[in-house]
Amino acid sequence: MNEEFILALNQLENEKGVKKDIIFDALESALLTSYKKNFGTNQNVEVKINREDGHIDVFANREVVEEVEDELLQISIDDAKKINHRYELGDIYKETINPKDFGRIAAQTAKQVVIQKIKDAERDIIYDEFLDRENELITGLIQRSSKGYVYVELGNTEGILPPGEQIKGEDYSHGNRYKMLLLEVKKTSKGPQIILSRSHPNLIKRLFEIEVPEIHDGIVEIYSIAREAGSRTKIAVFSKNEEVDALGACVGYKGQRVKAIVDDLHDEKIDIVIWEKEIDHFIANSLSPSSVEKVFVDDKEKSALVVVPDYQLSLAIGKEGQNARLAAKLTNWKIDIKSESQFEEYLEENNMTEDDLYEKLGYESEEDYEMRKGNEVEENEESNDELSDFQGE
């Protein structure tokens, strides 16, 4: 190796960020392996490369001993003192060796090491770049599919869309372009593995942040999302500014904002509901598009009995129970839905009135329920205000 090699390493360090010392260390290790492989020796060999001019020295290290048992690993004290009188027992004698054809082996090894280090550096750069973008929205071009996995071009690298992160029925043919969630970046021996998702609820969140400026700016916030990918999503939002209508902001003028999101999801239905501090109101909202007559909540069990008009029962439950199931996920409460007729039958079967039901749930009457729920909301608002004041100090 020569000055040109050192100059090439300097350029590599500047352009790829690969430190010269890393290459030198790797090269010394690789040359040592190559030497032993090509020359079939059991010697204790050491390879050193001069960091300034690239000159390579190969040493056979032998321990200074009283009586030699292995000539490849040991040298007698008498022979060592003939070379240098300062040698003592236990010292290491370094003998410089220059095996034939080692220059050719060194050149080949150096080339392989440098190529590998460049690949490693590029992989690290890609890993760091995408690691910082986890949970972000990314647009990818479908390249191919294999054994259920879809491989997606992401500029200078490739991402993977696993079967569990795909939307059933979507066309993942070559050349199709999709917005996806960058779910996770893993470091593997073959380089960074970038896991993508089309089915994760956070994909909905990122799409709303792009399409709704009020969400991006923090004026409108997303409280929760419940999703059955490819079919239907419920999203609960609220406004931090009384003058801004959260629902209107998300829907947009003539529904343009939500339509853009639905188009990205290939007609997945989206229900936008308003989150309210009163859990009974929130549960009622979550069952949209169905109207709700009454909600009886059991705070201890985090369950609710919801009464809807007779003609709205199937709408409230939804096809195969989907609307009720998504409402339960959105609110994180168990929800039992009954029509008005079923509710009356339920009261008769249990020989109770509505007031009896309120009493069973821990309230004296409907008025007591409304009053206590209102007080709870006010106390929560005061606690939040105090916390905000404390955090601001």
Automatic annotation (TrEMBL):
InterPro entries: KH_dom-like_a/b, KH_NusA_2nd, KH_sf_prok-type, NA-bd_OB-fold, NusA_N_sf, S1_domain, TF_NusA, TF_NusA_bacterial. Residues 135-199 form the S1 motif domain. Residues 367-393 are annotated as: Disordered. Pfam families: KH_NusA_1st, KH_NusA_2nd, NusA_N. Residues 377-393 have a biased composition (Acidic residues). It is found in: Cytoplasm. Gene3D superfamilies: 3.30.300.20, Nucleic acid-binding proteins, NusA, N-terminal domain. Its main location: cytoplasm. Transmembrane segments: none annotated. Keywords: Cytoplasm, RNA-binding, Transcription, Transcription antitermination, Transcription regulation, Transcription termination. Monomer. Binds directly to the core enzyme of the DNA-dependent RNA polymerase and to nascent RNA. Belongs to the NusA family. Participates in both transcription termination and antitermination. This is Transcription termination/antitermination protein NusA.
